[in-house]
Amino acid sequence: MEKEAGPDAAAMRLDDPWYEAPGTAWGEPDGMGAAAPDGRSRPEERGPGAAEIYLEVQNSPAFREVRRRYRRFVVPAAVAFLLWYLAYVIAATTAHDLMARPVAGALNVAMVAGLGQFLTTFLLTWAYARHARLHRDRAALELRWDTQEMTRGIGR
User: Fold this and answer.
1) Whole-model pTM?
2) What whole-number percentage of the chain has pLDDT above 90?
3) Rounded mean pLDDT of the chain?
4) CA gyration radius for the chain?
5) What is the pLDDT of residues 114-140, one digit of tens each?
6) Are 110 and 96 in contact (CB under 8 A)?
7) Kind plus residue range of the DSSP H or E element containing 126
8) What DSSP line would sit under 37-74, residue for residue?
9) What mean pLDDT is predicted for residues 74-93?
10) Backbone phi, then psi, for 24, in 5-degree steps?
11) CA 156 to CA 153: how far, in whole Å?
12) pLDDT at 107 > cutoff 60
């Protein structure tokens, strides 16, 4: 780790709550109930379980807003890209004269459109990453932290 990140990287602590989440091993109680004297488990009065917490988060306005922002970008972008791809494929199979028309030297319309497919893939990837960074990542991270805080006491 020292080569890639430097000598101080090993001492740096990542503040990610998911690294601190306790796990249960085989045969250990899962935190959902305590063992009764006869060996059977009995439920404890602990409050909401993980399922209820995740359903609460899923139904929250903040989660719905993150999903809405995601869909408002992804659906139109996916439709536009698929239409562009299908137009390219259809033109390549049906419009031979158009696709064979020279643009510059040995470069024809088919080659330009094919390279355009690569270019639009990279542009769409960049636009998606930018949109996520500017419009969704902070809200999603806040939801993640809130969910972690709500579930912190369940397994104890």
Assistant:
1) 0.59
2) 39
3) 79
4) 26
5) 999 999 999 999 999 999 999 888 888
6) no
7) helix 109-131
8) TTS-EEE------HHHHHHHHHTSHHHHHHHHHHHHHH
9) 95
10) -105, 145
11) 6
12) yes
Nearest-angstrom CA–CA distance, 151 and 133: 26
Q: How many helices (H) and strands (E) does the chain have?
A: 6, 4
* Exposure b/e, 75-92, CB count within 10 A at least 16 = b: eeeeeeeeeeeeebeeee
Orientation angle between helical segments 61-94 and 109-131, nearest 10 degrees: 180
Please count the residues of the chain. Answer: 156
Q: What is the pLDDT of residue 40?
A: 53
Burial, 13: exposed, middle or buried (Cβ in 10 Å; 0-12, 13-18, 19+)? exposed
Three-state DSSP state, 77: helix
Q: What is the pLDDT of residue 155?
A: 61
